[in-house]
Amino acid sequence: MATLQTSPQRTLLAEQPTIRRSLQQLRRGILVYVCSEFVLLALLAMAGWFLAVFLVDYGLFLLAGVDYVRDGSEGARAGVGVFLFRASWWTVLCATAVYLVAQRFLYRLLVPFRPEALALILERRFPQVLEERLVTAVELADPQTAERYGYSYRLVQYTAQSAEERLHHIPVRRVFNWARLRRLFLGGLGLWASVAALAYFATEWTATCWERNVVWKNRHWPLRVMLMLPDFAQQPRRGVPSGGEMPVRVFAWVNVVRTEDPSYPSGWRPATWADLFPDLENTSDPVARERQQIWELQPPVGPHTWLHILPDSWRLLTLDEVEARHKAMSAQQLRSEAIENLGELGRAVVDYLLPRIADRLAQASETERSLAQPDEETLRWLPKSWHDWSLVEIHDHLRFARRLTSDEVQRRLHSLRRPAGVPEDTALCLMSGWSPLAPPLLTTSTIQQIAWTNGWAEQLPPLTWSSSDWRDLPASWHNLAAAELERRLTQASEHYSLLALGRAVNAQLGELFKELERRADQRHWGRRIYYRRLHVYDQITLEYEELLTEEERRRIRAQVERLPVNRTPGSFEYRYEFRRIERPRRFRVFAGDAVTPWYHIDVRPLPTLRELLRWHREPGYLHNSSDWVERGPIVTALEGGQEIRFDAPIGSQIRLLARTTKPLQALEIALQDQRETDFYAALASQALLHGIFGHPASPFALSANAHTLHFYETRNPFVQQLHFSAGSDEFRVWLRPLRAEELRLVLRFTDNEGIRNSRRLTIVPQPDNEPEFQYANFEIVRREAITPRAIIPFSGLVRDDNGLTEVYYEVTVIQSDGKPLDGPTRIPLRTLNSAITLDSLEHLDLGTGEGLTRWTQPRTVRGGIGNRSVARILPLRTVGSVLASPATALAPLLLAGPLALLQPPVLEPVVEHEFRYEMRPLGAPFLTAQDEFLLTELVPRNVTVPDPNKPGKTITKPLEPPYRLVVRLVAVDNRMTVGTNDQLDREPQRTVYHAAFEFNVVTENDLLIEESRREEEIRERCDNILAKLTRIRDDLVKMRNEAEQLDEDRALRFARDCEDAQRNVSDCRDLVQREIIRDLRLIYRELWFNRVPQKELDRLDEKICRPLEQLVRDGDQFDLTQESIALLAQRLRNERQRVSPANFDPAVVQINLLIERFHKIIQEIKGLIEYAKALEILRDLIKAQERINELLKQTYEKRKREELQP
């Protein structure tokens, strides 16, 4: 506070102490008044600010349902509205505080109060008393000023004395307006009293306002109804595909407790069973501390036995869920779920009471057991009808309720009324059957039935019951009659024990919830609410609107629709489903004073695959390897609708890498068209098959099959491994080896918003097809007759998609009686794998002079499309091995014969092999390196017959013709399958050509006899040619005889006849060259392939074939004959009548020579035919002699037997 600053005023105040005291008293009064007013105004402002905030905040919520904390926490600018609302109120409060502190307090304290101002205050407050004397004395107290202006200073002193005298009669405190301070005090007192009353009678709402607006906690106003949407709890915005559906579940909370958990912004959470019985000793757990603060639930609303009575699954539920079940179980008409819940409660009570009662009975003596009564704790959980029972009866009934179901009770009732036969009845029937007299048969079941009919069941026990029927029944029932037992069982069936126990516990639950309701309704004055029971409406309102774009909002207005949603009976849940959502929309739910925030449903694209890469781990034999071969990455085409298809070889292990368009929350890989009934159908068919065919291991096989089927139905057996993490857009799948059936999988995606989609994945297995023969046939030889040493040329084409490992002949020897000789012989194809022995090759004339060299050098076999190289082979192992190591190569020959020299194929993959015998000119070699043939000498044909010289002994000798050879062509590929531990096991496929080639094997003589028939036909044609040549010669001789009287006309006629003769000779030459020689060479070739004796071949070749070839050669006899006749015809045309008979002689001579040579060849053919006929006669004679010898032998044996007979 400032003081007087001029020395004249201080002098005056020192001279007039009364004036000084009055001014000082006024200065102190001003200080007290300013401070008092500041305090009252500050208190009044704070109380008014809090009340104003409370009234505005709660008024908006109460009247309009607006909660700025709840409503401002949603949307893109969540929290901005909350901050602005709070900041505006705090701005008002801060502005008021600044005004009060700066203007109403600091400014008044810091401004100096001069004596003139203080005197003026007194003058204005008491003008009639002071009459301006005080202000005059204070302002004119300076003597220098008085001297300067010329007024009397003594008069000023007098005025000061007069003012001092009057100040004695003035109360300085009356200067201030103390009534204003009283009014401020009363107003502030009223406001603070209102705040105090509000805080006492509405503690919860006052504290909530304090937390919301002062402490700035995001606390919602307490509601009478609290709704929760569990599907939107984590994310208020969910997506659906276009045209999809969105189910909405709304839960109404009933029993709630206070919580500080930030996941519950309202500050309330559903009460759990643990909240009713908190752990008072645990102070470290925040949840435990929260439960200890719930004073409404102290003391506990029920005994701690509830923690053991309820089933374990129930103790994890909220009180709302338990109460909903209680209401459902208390209804007049129980649903199936309510009956199940009652049974579950009953079983829990039995599990709790039965061991305790059993322990109590075990500790009691025999006398005490019969007199033991249940205590109050036990009776609490039992039906009222059980309260009069003894502890033993209660124990028996608990066992009865625990072990016997309603079906078991019905079965026992049925056996009472309709008794079945017992073993004693069977014995009685047998004894009556053995008795000579037929006594009346009264079995136990018959007596029981008569007792029910005649009313004896009241005294007769159930005679047909066995010990198993009495098991689990109370011991007190064992002495009851059948009628009483029926009444007890009927009562137990109608009032099922477990259900009765469950109803008793349900009644206790009702009392517990009534107590909770009573505690929730008690006064909460001066205390915050920690437990509440909220109201539940039977119907709520769902409001929704479709969201429009900015352009659409300019044209149309969004339509808001409100729909009533009813509560699901027996629960606190409301269900609604949005259908066919085509546009984004938002919705909220109203119920009483509760309104949920806006929840948004957006139309989102479906999650699907955007990239699919795969790696194939394929069996190596498909890629010319003996181990697994990795292929990839392979990009899979996704443009094909909902189904993705690709091919893969059978046995491949496929690894997939997939990337989706959206992050996924869940991924499921299942089988397409998988049904639960498939499991049972497979089991039934398996059991039926075992029942039809029978097998000692049927139960084990059925069990194993059931286990396998269960594995296939409950898991995807084709998925070996899956790597996926929630929230990722990538996953990896390892599949098991691909089988022969199509693998039809379905990939089900669920993104983070719950949108589901699926893609079908079909993997088409590429089977390793069996080798396929395009064609196959034999050449040259005839199947009607071949020799045992024949060479059979073959032609054919075999293909395989991956590779051939073996192509061979499968030769079966069929004896004359139709029985096969041993098993078939396998002889590999020579062009693919040599099967020719050394001895056989040495006797083959290949016509090139190369000998064995052509069979020992590696060569490339070409065939198929484009004459491409398909294999590089070593045709014959035998020769090379013998040259390198004779002992090693010939050692197997001693043990297994010539076939031991065969080698397995060591090839590059052969996908196509063509073997053929090409028809060559007559003079070309019969066999070349490219020809394929079967050497029949390699077929073992030894038979075991009795030794005629040594009775009882057998000898082995070659099979004598006739017999048959059945030749089949077989191809084997290089297929491999996946075995245990992913090992590749060789499992080739075998294909047999559809046609079997049968050859009749005869002797060489029989073959010559057969060929003689063809030679006979050739001889007839040669005779015709010879006759034709003879006629030509006769015509020439006739023309020469008539040439002596030759004129011009006759000469021209002879010329024409000569020309005709020339043409006839040419035709004969062509016929011989085109048919005769060809047919003879074919016979020769066939005989060569049948390997007849060389002398027979030489005779046909040197005596017939070569002379004929020489005869038709250019410049030889046919050619000379044609030239001579042509020269004669030309001369006749030119010289005509001048031609002499001598000019005909050259033509006649040449044709005579031709006829002579041709006739000689025909004689050779006749000689062959006659030789064959002689062989045929000899064969017939030998057969006749053999038949005679057989008849003689039979006659001799017959006579010998007759002589030995007595």
TrEMBL record:
Coiled-coil residues: 1022-1049, 1174-1202
Keywords: Coiled coil, Membrane, Transmembrane, Transmembrane helix
TM spans (from-to): 30-56, 76-102, 184-202
Protein's name according to its UniProt entry: Uncharacterized protein
Organism: uncultured Planctomycetota bacterium
